[in-house]
Design goal:
13% of the residues lie in helices and 45% in strands. It is mostly beta strands. The radius of gyration is 26 Å and the shape is elongated.
């Protein structure tokens, strides 16, 4: 009787271990941002994962994988993850910023866009790749904070919008019609005469 119970207890302990050895390992990628992300595992074709969703891949053998990702609220990044048979390995992709979405509701093309933190006197480089034609939209991922935008149309006229509050994991949407033609407030102090 004791021998039967001991054998039963031993089987109860060993069977789950054997089942884990035979089971596939799972790489689970969890999008913890409110918008879609694009993920590539081991340099594969990027796959879109909706906000607050998961995606899993399964492996029969131990694998060390490079997982790269980017999204509207997530700056480009990559991690290395080891997947082992019978275990779940998780990569949590968290929001690292917010987004500024811009819609060109004007009848003219936008040739340049400059995005700069409020309080910074330098506009920095042009953040627009190509030209934004009437009716087109684009989006930029930025860190949480307050931002200024300068637009330059195809005729080299400048338009400004200052103090755009961006919150992590959210989009601040703007239209061209919200921009003004007032002077460059960032560099106004550079144009003022100084007393010597």
């Amino acid at each position: 009787m004791k021998r039967g119970l001991l054998l039963l207890l031993l089987l109860a302990l060993v069977l789950p271990v054997l089942a884990c050895v035979a089971a596939e390992g799972e790489l689970r990628i969890r999008n913890r941002s409110a918008d879609e992300i694009w993920v590539s595992v081991a340099n594969s074709e990027p796959r879109k994962i909706s906000g607050w969703s998961n995606w899993s891949l399964f492996y029969k053998e131990t694998a060390i994988l490079s997982v790269s990702y980017i999204g509207n609220y997530v700056f480009a990044d990559a991690v290395e993850q080891t997947v082992r048979p019978g275990l779940i390995s998780t990569v949590d992709v968290l929001p690292s910023g917010g987004a500024i979405a811009f819609a060109n509701d004007a009848a003219l093309a936008i040739a340049e866009v400059y995005i700069s933190p409020t309080g910074d006197l330098d506009w920095g480089p042009n953040d627009l790749a190509g030209v934004l034609n009437p009716g087109q939209t684009t989006i930029w991922t930025v860190t949480e904070g307050t931002w200024d935008l300068k637009l330059v149309d195809a005729d080299y006229r400048e338009y400004y919008k200052y103090g755009i509050a961006v919150t992590a994991n959210q989009t601040q949407s703007l239209n061209f019609s919200e921009f003004g033609r007032e002077g460059d407030a960032k560099n106004a102090s550079l144009d003022q005469p100084t007393d010597n």
